[in-house]
Amino acid sequence: MPTDPKKRRSARWFLAEDLRSFAHRSRTLQMGYAYEDFMGKPVVAIINTWSDLNHCHAHFRTRVEEVKRGVWQAGGFPVELPALSLSETFVKPSTMLYRNLLAMEVEELLRSHPVDGAVLMGGCDKTTPALLMGATSMNLPAIYMPAGPMLRGNHAGRILGSGSDVWKYWAEKRAGTITEAEWRAMEAGIARSYGTCMVMGTASTMTSLAEALGMTLPGASSIPASDSNHPRMASQCGRRIVEMIDEDLKPRDILTRAAFENALVVQMALAGSTNAMIHLIAMAGRAGVELNLADFDRVARGVPVLANIRPSGTLLMEDFYYAGGLPALMTMLRDMLDLDARTVSGKSLGAAIAGAQVYHPDVIRSLDNPISGVAGTAVLIGNLAPDGAVMKPSAAEPRLLKHSGPALVFRDYNEMNAIVDRDDLQVTPDHVLVLQNAGPVGAPGMPEWGMLPIPQKLLKQGVRDMLRVSDARMSGTAYGACILHVAPESYLGGPLAAVKNGDIISVDVERRSINLEVGDSEIARRLAEWSPPDRTFARGYNHIYAKHMRQADKGCDFDFLEGTAPTSEPEIH
Fold first, then answer.
1. Which of 104, 424, 524, 569 has the most CB atoms less than 10 A away?
2. Which residues, 6 or more positions from 374, have their beta carbon under 8 angstroms from its beta carbon?
3. What is the model's pLDDT at position 34?
4. What b/e sequence results for 430-465 when a residue is b if at least 16 CB atoms lie within 10 Å of its CB, and e otherwise?
5. Cβ count near 568 (within 10 Å)
6. What is the pLDDT of residue 1?
């Protein structure tokens, strides 16, 4: 049954009989709306993260109209509220610096406006967790509309994957095996449509996890952005949110412990981006669910990689969609999932994926025919990372999964960039490259510097992977034996700050260990003499960020935004 209009949140703005409501109604009429458009109707906020510099969301100016169409069809009143766009490619030093700012903006947009529910339009890496974090904190009915992956790239008859092949061919260019003309031709062919990266990078990982959590319509996360099913899905989101408002179905009704356990299973089967570990922990915290790195490692040990998608596999998201998409993958995993978990569709997860089929078994594998028996994610603990570090073993050369070698230390990104390609750099394939001061506070913003470049002299010798350790992140499109998110970070005096050139670092992925082969007393002595590099966070958002940022193992949320304390309703005067 429809909700009594007088009991809706928006009624405080539009249905009261006072001077302020007179202003609300008259200004709405000023914009050309009729009383019939908005009076007594559920008001739907459409949070649109479009911008002229967000290539992933280039189609959102059109999609927002298609969402509105669905809202109108269902009897609602749609209002578009633009939000911070967070273009992964263009925002510097890192979109991670601003994820929490977007989350806070979403919470405040929903709090301060006369809205009853929201459609969240995102897809580019940090937009998915930020939108869901903010909506979860506000806890009004909300549905997530993913941007969708772009089409396959193409160059000289070869299929290209955005991100993954950039890293691959950049290494070849630095090694001198491809020409400048070939490189330019790849630039023109690797991104052929709007939409997110079409590999299992952070964007596709997070939209897939949004679906696994129950926050998208079934199958929504893998529809290519330029496919005609995508605008139809957008309109369906508009229709469904109006129903959700009447049902009072809110994010925290969906984002339960069972939902996050389901997301962990899907993350491992996808060999999803390591960035998901930070985002899921932060998202869970907003829903009142305690999630930690041990949960990731526990699930990873029991779930093989089933999705044959780059960088851990060979194919792309377009192939994944035509193979059946995420519902088909989840049918392969159904015995590992809580099928009673709720979804925004109004159905249980089991009902939402019922009837899904795998059409191409090489793209979506069965449990007895996985892409890799090596875990998609591993959490390493040791004296170098007391609070944990993360790795994607399925994307590394197997020889590096158990390795000891001397450290080659770069104090920061600028030092690394200045010397890594010098011919006189003293480095061998057995060295462990170490990058310090690249973490949440030290960088700031924990940029995607964790896939340290292979020194050029080694590239010319044919080396294509090395063990690399940092407190940074890496792109979900990247690959290699990169150990990331070392916590606590070096800038705050974590053990990573004590590493010196020539120290032996030992890694054993099977045993989940990472250690600096230096005595505890020597590490303590070095840290006592150590001082952090000078960083000035004197004003503005960076000042807030540096004071309130949590570490990677805690999700990098702001300490004052964690938890489920209710968002206060504004006074209307």
1. 104
2. 305, 393, 394, 398, 401
3. 98
4. ebbbbbbbbbbbbbbbbbbbbbbbbbbbbbeeebeb
5. 7
6. 43
**The tokens of 288 are what?**
């009142």
As a 3-state breakdown, the chain gives helix, strand, coil percent values, each rounded to 5, of 40, 15, 45
Please list, in sequence order, all residues whose beta carbon lies within 8 angstroms of the beta carbon of residue 250, skipping any fewer than 6 positions away. Answer: 139, 140, 141, 142
Instruction: Read off the tokens for 464.
Output: 């294509």
- At 165 the pLDDT is 85
Instruction: Determine the Cα–Cα distance for residues 472 and 470; give it in Å rounded to an integer.
Output: 5
Sorted by where each begins, the domain ranges of the chain are: 42-151+193-353, 153-189, 378-534
Q: Is the CB of residue 477 less than 8 Å from the CB of residue 165?
A: no
In CATH terms, 42-151+193-353 corresponds, of 3.20.20.300, 3.40.190.10, 3.40.50.2300, 3.40.50.1820, to 3.40.50.2300
The tokens 């290699």 sit on which residue?
480
Residues 6+ apart with CB under 8 A from 19: none
Amino acid at 19: L
Q: In this predicted structure, what is the pLDDT of residue 2?
A: 56
pLDDT for 459-499, tens place per residue? Answer: 999 999 999 999 999 988 788 999 999 999 999 999 999 99
Fold classified for 378-534 = Glucose Oxidase; domain 1 (3.50.30)
In Å, how far are 193, 231, 269, 449 from 59, measured between CA atoms? 10, 10, 29, 29
- CB count within 10 Å of CB 147 equals 29
Which pLDDT tens digit goes with each residue over 429-448?
A: 999 999 999 999 999 999 99
Are the CB atoms for 166 and 153 separated by under 8 Å?
no
Task: Show the beta-strand stretches assigned E in 319-401.
Answer: 378-382, 385-391
Kindly give the parts of the chain with pLDDT less than 50: 1
What is the CB-side half-sphere exposure of residue 128 using CA atoms within 13 A? 30
Task: Give the closest residue to 396 by CA, choosing from 484, 517, 266.
Answer: 484
- Exposed, middle or buried: residue 113 (CB in 10 Å: 0-12, 13-18, 19+)? middle
Q: What is the pLDDT of residue 136?
A: 98
pTM: 0.96
Quote the CA–CA distance of 143 and 132 in Å, as a whole number. Answer: 9
Length of the chain: 573
